[in-house]
Design a protein that fits this description.
This protein is of the alpha/beta class. Helices cover 52% and strands 16% of the residues. The strands form 3 sheets. Strands 1-5-4-3-2 form a 5-stranded mixed beta sheet. Strands 7-6-10-9-8 form a 5-stranded antiparallel beta sheet, sandwiched between helices. The protein has a 5-stranded mixed beta sheet with strand order 12-13-11-14-15, sandwiched between helices. The two termini are 58 Å apart.
């Protein structure tokens, strides 16, 4: 702990020859250095927490300058100012006392018989001894923490030790926002939801150059080991920390990082096992359904009568705290909404295998859709369109789970292409698009491209005719009148454009067969331009 002005006041030298004449409210200021001021430009080189000694010799003829310099020192929050009286001035001017009181700056009159050397030696000795005791305490704390690590003490021991030392709420939080361990002081008013909000807020903000985030009286210190972010140390409702307290907290963060790394390695091993089993279920074809049931039980799911798969893909896959927190929230809500489910994270994707105990049907599907809609609206990602959710058809044979995973994955991919304004997609909405997806890169698709897609696009490029946009509007809108309104053209102009498409491709929009061919061409073109490697089926 750094020495304070109040502690200096109890020293024999101060009792003997220093008299406090102003700024009593600043006696709790820390003292880190002592120096002498005898030149007019002294404040230009000053810093906080310095105890200043002076005779005012260089300033005794200019009272206005004395007042200005004392005001500057007050603004700089020096520790204290001591003026030697009886040497060059007989008493401290009243305007200096008023200025010191204004800034809460401790002001002393110093006896002329006390030399600056004696004062500097006494104050410096106290500062050095205080710093020595601080480092001694920190070393004792370090040895205690090291001993705790070597004994294999749990994270709870470290958190309780810190909380008791600082007398504040203290929590160790995982990257996903889960509270690993926490300590409550008797007077703490709050709950775990406060910590979650704090972690979420810190995840959105930039990490401080100081190595921690401060929000009001709350602190979040990132725990890092092997260049890997492992969680936070959270301190709530704590007064501004002293340097020694901050050093102690940093020590604790280092040891908590070690404990979290141990825990992370165990969890990581378990997760790898879970993902390996999940990948078997999602990608391997089982002939024996009984064996598949046993594998699914290893994921914590006892299969019911009917099943489907949910697939969630984040639109922005940058690794950050906010994304991790949102992933955890989604995992938790999925398990809450669908109690018979196995939910797991695959890279930046979330997959859920859901079992249903009841008979599925139209009504039951509406219930599922309503539950999924509620699930998405309850999270922040829905409001910001940060992720898309696709879900498969309902099946009875567990051996079709790989097909369901592919359907849910394709639902997201096709939904992003054909319904970009939404982020909730059911595979059955895209059956025809799913069928046509298999036609890409085939001879039939190439024939369709040469006969219809390329001629229309070439004509648009040459004549700026907007034939492709016209075809899209006519296929998407419920009537030609609405298509014309969307294009801001007259219906006769729209019919003229459709006739030009007929002339160029030989396909008549106004005949059922022609409309069907043009619609296939349109869908294939959208698929060809919209399919990207962002959503992987492997």
């Amino acid at each position: 702990m750094n020495i304070t002005v109040a502690q200096l006041c109890r020293l024999p030298l101060f009792v003997k020859g220093f008299k406090l004449i102003a700024g009593a409210e600043g006696l709790n200021r820390e003292v880190r250095l002592v120096t002498v001021m005898e030149v007019p430009d002294f404040p230009e080189y000053m810093q906080e927490n310095v105890f200043v000694l002076t005779t005012l010799y260089a300033l005794k003829e200019d009272q206005n300058l004395v007042g200005e310099i004392v005001a500057k020192l007050g603004n700089m929050r020096i520790a204290a100012l001591a003026i030697k009286v009886g040497r060059f001035i007989e008493e401290v001017p009243s305007y200096v006392i008023e200025t010191a009181n204004k800034y809460g700056l401790p002001l002393f009159s110093m006896d002329k018989d006390i030399t600056f050397r004696e004062a500097i030696s006494t104050i410096s000795t106290e500062i050095i001894e205080s710093q020595f005791n601080t480092f001694k305490d920190l070393n004792n704390q370090y040895e205690y923490l090291l001993s705790s690590v070597l004994k294999g003490d749990k994270i709870e021991v470290f958190v309780r030790s810190l909380g008791e030392s600082l007398n504040c709420y203290c929590a160790c939080v995982s990257p996903l926002g889960q509270i690993v361990a926490h300590y409550f002081p008797a007077e703490f008013q709050g709950g775990e939801e406060d910590v979650e909000l704090l972690v979420n807020e810190a995840g959105k903000s930039r990490r401080s150059l100081l190595g921690y985030t401060q929000i009001d009286n709350d602190y979040l210190f990132p725990c890092v080991a092997r260049d890997q972010f492992l969680g936070y140390l959270v301190l709530k409702d704590i007064d501004p920390m002293s340097d020694s307290q901050l050093l102690f907290v940093r020590q604790m963060v280092a040891f908590l990082s070690i404990k979290l790394l141990e825990k992370h390695l165990v969890i990581e091993t378990e997760q790898r096992m879970i993902i390996a089993i999940a990948d078997e279920i999602l990608f391997q074809r089982y002939e024996n359904e009984a064996l598949l049931k046993e594998r699914i039980k290893l994921l914590g799911l006892t299969p019911q009568k009917y099943h489907f798969v949910i697939f969630i893909s984040f639109r922005h896959t940058d690794s950050n705290d906010s994304l991790q927190f949102e992933s955890h929230q989604l995992l938790t809500r999925l398990r809450s909404v669908f109690t018979h489910s196995a939910v797991f994270l695959r890279s930046t994707e979330i997959v859920a295998i859901v079992s249903l105990p009841d008979q599925p049907g139209t009504t039951y599907h509406k219930t599922i859709k309503r539950a999924i809609t509620t699930l998405m609206k309850s999270g922040q990602g829905q409001q910001n369109n940060e992720f898309d959710l696709g879900y498969s058809q309902i099946i009875r044979d567990l051996r079709q789970i790989p097909d369901c995973y592919e359907q849910a994955n394709k639902a997201v991919m096709l939904g992003r292409i054909f319904k970009p304004e939404s982020n909730l997609f059911w595979y059955e909405e895209f059956i025809k698009e799913g069928l046509l997806l298999h036609s890409l890169d085939t001879n039939e698709y190439n024939m369709m491209a040469r006969a219809i897609i390329e001629p229309i696009r070439e004509y648009d490029k040459k004549c700026n005719a907007e034939l492709w946009a016209t075809l899209e509007a006519c296929l998407v809108k419920s009537s030609l009148e609405k298509a014309a309104q969307a294009l801001h053209i007259h219906s006769s102009s729209l019919r003229y454009r459709l006739q030009r498409i007929h002339d160029i491709t030989g396909t008549n929009f106004f005949l059922p067969e022609g409309r069907f061919v043009l619609q296939m061409a349109y869908v294939l073109s959208k698929l060809d331009s919209g399919v990207t490697p962002e959503v992987s089926l492997k």
